[in-house]
Amino acid sequence: MLRQDVVAPGAVSDEEVAAGESAHKAIDAFIALRSRREPDPDEREPSYAESVRRYHAAQDAARRAEWAAYHEAQAERLRRTLERLVAVHEVQARKLAEMVSD
Description:
It is elongated, with a radius of gyration of 38 Å. The protein is mainly alpha-helical. It has helices at 14-37, 41-44, 46-101. The protein has one domain (14-101).
């Protein structure tokens, strides 16, 4: 016969379950209280908001520089392609003009 004050290996007593539930409730209450009281970072530290603004401004400037470089490179690629295309058409036009004048 098993004694009532001895818990089988791996079993959890009612007191342990109650203590665990109580701890969870206390943690949930603490988190809820903290989340209601936690001010917005911009309100807490004006320097934080300024830091974020500077970071975003730097990111925007970097993106603008990348787009500018892309457009400059694309313009150069198109210029080379179109110059060759113009040259081909000029040669064809001369050939046809010579045929007409003969």
